[in-house]
TrEMBL record:
Top-rank taxon, per record: Bacteria
PANTHER family assigned to the protein according to its UniProt record, in alphabetical order: ALDEHYDE OXIDOREDUCTASE MOLYBDENUM COFACTOR ASSEMBLY PROTEIN, MOLYBDENUM COFACTOR INSERTION CHAPERONE PAOD
Residue ranges of domain XdhC Rossmann in the record: 78-218
Protein name listed in UniProt: XdhC family protein
Amino acid sequence: MHAQTLRSLNAERRTRRAAILVTDLANGKDRLVREGDVLSGHLGEALQRAFRSGKSGTVEAGGGSFFLNVHLPPPRIVAIGAVHISQALAPMARIAGFDIEIIDPRTAFATPERFPETRLAADWPEDVFKRRPLDAYTALAALTHDPKIDDFPLKAALETGCFYVGALGSRKTHAKRLARLAEAGVTDEASTRIQAPIGLDIGAASPAEIAVAVLAQIVAALRSRGLAAATESRAA
């Protein structure tokens, strides 16, 4: 790998952006492909699949063989609300390979005793995001039912391009939420990205079941990133 390519790759990793080092096995030449670059042909399709799966490996495309060394940022979940659902979600998320952080300014709820071995911030989301910004490899789940706590991170997640944005609450509650977000400048198109009621529709009732539904929806969102765009590209 050339020194400049290595520097470029390290720069992408530091800023939590996905990239793939593509090496032509016939001549050893390599190049760095960043997520969001325009990709075409069979190699482009293979790269898109690799960005979704996160798996490195050899592919055959255009009469050549290429090794794809995939570098994806560790996916993380930011849960707004130190609630019962978050208590169940935290250990599940870790088992599934996600970093997870719980944010809640209500210090009576955001305690290490309730969330052992979990990154916890007993602070307002807007203050936490100044220290640890959201990004495209973050899933945000708003779980407090309190607009004063939930609305700002939802707006921030949509603006940042988080790969998943979900919010707890009934359809009636969500309609009121959408009205508030519209007043705050969120477009109707952006608001449609919010998964609400949160989680896959599996009939979940208990906090643990809802956590399962939320985590499953987050995994589906992570592994389908860019899929719609790829399908449209093939159909064109």
